């Protein structure tokens, strides 16, 4: 399996330098990350929402080593919210944040991350939208869930992400599937040990369906994070069995992957939200996109050979 190898490379400074220096890399990265600045991304927001799509915005960057960098990450989100506020799009454009960007791994990181993310959640609420806390590797999840619970006291619409490949996730889903909750279910994109996570694709797919059923039968708002046509069909059937209307759940897919499917689902009346990342520190995000799906890796490899 190439996925674990690619995920290991995502942590390698040597591979970062090699891939970043390749002339073709920027052309390929642009498929997944449509800009580096707020000025780049605002027109993308306008273009996609005009097509009937919704967005969740991610300012990429995870290698935070100082409190000052964590504050800068917070400020980048605040700038984004300030810039999209005049568009009047409300919850059609929400934010996705990784708490590692806000200092979670630093000394006193739990409290620091909470202090940094709260102003972002407050600013999002002020323009009629919300924030979803992305899941990272399993060692960070207890802190993430605790911060999520704290934020929901004042901002109950704050969402979080759960990962189907972790053994703990079914229990997390049952706990989270309450009225007013917003939960995004993904397969998982970090290299996790066999002690805590399923390793085989068929096991992960079966776990995804089990967890999705819990969310659909619960009282919260499921967000289906998948590009897999089979899982999308299963999600539609589970929603039908649970008696959910089209506005009582949503699909989420990454910018640059299956764009025609985004438009098809939106045209059928589904809420279809595009996970749209931007920024200069793109390497870790990009490598996980390659690891998630062999087709992404083949696309990159062909580009390296034909244009490098």
From TrEMBL:
Broad enzyme group? oxidoreductase
Q: How is the cofactor bound?
A: Binds 1 FAD per subunit.
> Known EC number(s)?
1.5.5.2
Which region is the signal sequence?
none
Residues annotated as binding FAD are 163, 187-189, 201, 226-227
- Amino-acid positions noted as binding substrate in the UniProt annotation, renumbered to this chain: 98, 288-289
What is the required cofactor set for this protein? FAD
Q: In which pathway does it act?
A: Amino-acid degradation; L-proline degradation into L-glutamate; L-glutamate from L-proline: step 1/2
**Keyword terms, alphabetized:** FAD, Flavoprotein, Nucleotide-binding, Oxidoreductase, Proline metabolism
A Pfam short name = Pro_dh
The yes or no answer to whether the keyword Flavoprotein is present is yes
A GO MF annotation of the entry reads:
nucleotide binding
Q: Which GO terms describe its biological process?
A: L-proline catabolic process to L-glutamate
Q: What is this protein called?
A: proline dehydrogenase
